[in-house]
Design goal:
- The chain has 649 residues and is α/β, with parallel strands linked by helices.
- The protein is 35% helix and 19% strand.
- It has an 8-stranded parallel sheet. Strands 11-14-15-16-17-18-19-20 form an 8-stranded parallel beta barrel, surrounded by 4 helices. A 5-stranded mixed sheet has the order 21-22-23-24-25.
- α15 links the parallel β19 and β20.
- The longest helix is centred in the N-terminal third of the chain and has 25 residues.
- It is globular, with a radius of gyration of 26 Å.
């Protein structure tokens, strides 16, 4: 889609003023979603749905952690019927939290569940469509015939939901698009949107409007593009159904949190999202504080300092293209985004100071060892170094300090906009120029464009900083200024988890749109150096802009899971975490497994009690591998395809 056809707000209320998109209010039991209701948080049980006591106990733990909707899998009729017993026990215990039945392949289970719980979730690619990874062309007549078959199969559920006041989530997953959608639209955000719209049109024809929509993917870039495109289509057709946000199969630990914040946060920043779930390969109650932290950031976002309106959108928000910039040393152009470490607040800088930033100095060997997550530059502020720099590491100093060190190798100055315009002495190769949006006058932009040594360090003091920095990028692009840009953000008095989530949202959202040639996280009383370094590289990994480690696409587990996902993920991670750039999918069942393998190099999918199927991308390589041998077989598969290296040490 050409940017020339887009309005200034093609998928959200405003690109410069924080405002939640006003969706229609949908009632789910005792709570409302959308409209003027707050952003809701939810999770999903991991117990066997037939184990009533365990499911009720886990649901209570989730609710007490703050979960506002409890989703429970119902893969067959018996699980759907048992939802009545689960609901009865929860209500008897004094909990009125709405229950959501998760349905994939079994329409008859959905029809039972819709008479019991407050909401059913259906996945269009699995519910009534064909998904055999069959490559064929559909004529228009054949395509329409399939749509009529889907209408016939789906309409009974729609009518039951309407009769019983049951809400519905139409939840498209990138990993489970049908053959028909894949063959016509490809494995694309547009295919995800069209998959949901087909089911939505049936609901509208039946006058069912208690609908929530979702567009989940394990790749935040695909996920964000799909949600934006969905809203764009709805706005065009006069619809405003609420959105449930989530990055599916995000993984565990810091990786899962960073990846979730990048995707969910990018949408929340633009006022999109009425309910969220953070899909972690952990206990479901651990997801709730993360989701709450993401949602709560927007409760007081209104009233931020004004940002000048954007009158032209120079990017396509529905696809990824990196902004074209010139190269300044290793910054910009085709170079991967750099990471700048902020050491300016340290009392003293020694070789040990660099350890958390990926540089390990051996005194006996008088040698530096670099990790895969070694930062590219140090910002020292007013400090001087009294030791030799490792590798290709560069140093940036305040201008007055740099003047004393200007003859040292790989030392560069940080100058203000006023300094640059005043023609202060600068370095021949690289000069970092600090500025915010208000500093980007025509004179400064011209100076940045004409001086091939300049790199812009773009900061913001606005509460709605993502939008202000995006507006600054747009201003540079309008002026056809190709200066590389480092995205800088300050964080004050945050605990480690909030620092990670806020930085992932703020920096990741820009990088998803191809904006930014590097990152600089500046914490004040907000987490240690090692955490900041991991977060910076984690953001680049999650946005697929710089790969520095193995990526795990692991689902959060549910009642369909056929093995201990947390324990298995830990075992696979322990054996493979040194395989930089390799993507490994770890799926508890086949619901999304084969489809998500398209985004993974190798897949480990539960397909029966105690047995695993191994994939190379979408293709099955080995079936029914005993789980005791499956990790070894996975390693052998990686070796067979030439992607294995031995771990150092």
């Amino acid at each position: 889609m050409s940017t020339a056809t887009l309005s200034t707000s093609p998928y959200c209320p405003s690109l410069t003023r924080y405002e939640r998109w006003r969706t229609r209010a949908v009632r789910i039991g005792d709570i409302g979603i959308g409209g003027d209701h707050p952003i809701r948080v939810q999770s999903m049980t991991t117990t066997d749905t037939m184990d009533t006591a365990a499911t009720v106990a886990q649901s209570i733990r989730m609710i007490e952690a703050g979960c506002e909707l409890v989703r429970i899998t119902a893969p067959s009729k018996k699980e759907a019927e048992n939802l009545a017993a689960i609901k009865k026990q929860l209500r008897a215990a004094g909990f009125s939290t709405p229950l959501v039945a998760d349905i994939h392949f079994t329409p008859n289970a959905a029809e039972i569940a819709a008479r019991i719980v407050e909401k059913v979730r259906v996945n269009p690619g699995n519910y009534a469509d064909k998904k055999r990874f069959d490559v064929r062309e559909y004529t228009d007549a054949e395509y329409q015939e399939e749509l009529e078959r889907i209408r016939e199969r789906f309409t009974p559920l729609v009518r039951i939901c309407k009769e019983h006041g049951t809400a519905m989530r139409i939840g498209t997953n990138h990993g489970s698009l049908s053959d028909r959608i894949l063959n016509r639209y490809g494995d694309t955000p547009l295919g995800m949107v069209e998959s949901a719209m087909e089911f939505l049109r049936i609901c509208r024809d039946e006058d069912l409007h208690e609908i929530v929509l979702s567009m989940k993917a394990s790749n935040p870039q695909v996920m964000v593009q799909a949600y934006r495109l969905l809203v764009h289509h709805m706005l065009r057709e006069g619809m405003n159904y609420p959105l449930h946000l989530g990055v599916t199969e995000a993984g565990d630990g810091e990786d899962g949190r960073v990846k979730s914040a990048v995707g969910i946060g990018a949408l929340l920043e633009d006022g999109l999202g009425d309910t969220i779930r953070v899909s972690l390969t952990e206990e479901p109650e651990a997801e709730i504080p993360v989701a709450r932290a993401l949602a709560d950031r927007y409760s007081a976002r209104r009233g931020h300092d004004p940002i000048p309106e954007v009158h032209h959108v120079p990017i396509d928000p529905f696809s990824h293209t990196r902004r074209h910039t010139r190269a300044v040393l290793n910054i910009g152009a085709r170079h991967v985004p750099v990471v700048i470490a902020d050491l300016s607040t340290k009392k003293k800088i020694t070789p040990a100071t660099l350890f958390p930033w990926g540089y390990h100095y051996s005194v006996p060997l008088d040698k530096w060892n670099l990790t895969d997550q070694a930062c590219d530059y140090l910002f020292l502020g007013d400090h001087h170094l009294d030791f030799e720099l490792p590798g290709t590491l560069g140093v940036i100093q305040e201008h007055a300090t740099w003047l004393k060190d200007r003859h040292k190798p790989r030392h560069y100055p940080l100058v203000t906009a006023a300094d640059l315009l005043a023609n202060v002495p600068v370095h021949h190769d690289l000069n970092l120029v600090y500025a915010t949006l208000k500093d980007l006058t025509p004179e400064l932009i011209e100076a940045l464009d004409e001086d091939d040594s300049c790199v812009l360090l773009l900061d913001t003091l606005n509460q709605h900083g993502y939008a202000e920095q995006r507006a600054a990028f747009f201003k540079l692009m309008e002026a056809k200024c190709e200066v590389p840009v480092i995205i800088g953000r300050d964080y004050v008095n945050l605990d480690p988890e909030h620092l990670m989530l806020h930085a992932s949202t703020d920096l990741g959202a820009l990088l998803l749109d191809g904006l930014g040639d590097g990152v600089m996280i500046c914490p004040e009383n907000s987490g240690g150096d090692e955490l900041v370094d991991r977060t910076a590289f984690g953001i680049l990994q999650a946005t697929r802009t710089r790969i520095s480690k193995t990526e795990y696409i692991s689902c959060p587990s549910c009642g369909r899971t056929l093995f201990d996902l947390q324990e298995t993920t830990a075992r696979i991670r322990a054996r493979t975490s040194h395989l930089k750039g390799v993507k490994i999918g770890i799926m508890g069942c086949i619901v999304n497994g084969p489809g998500e393998m398209a985004d993974a190099d190798f897949g480990y999918v539960g397909t029966g009690p105690g047995v695993i199927t191994l994939y190379r991308e979408k293709e099955v390589v080995k079936r029914n591998v005993p789980s005791a041998q499956a990790v070894d077989e996975l390693i052998a598969l990686i070796k067979e395809h030439g992607m294995w290296v031995e771990a150092e040490g």
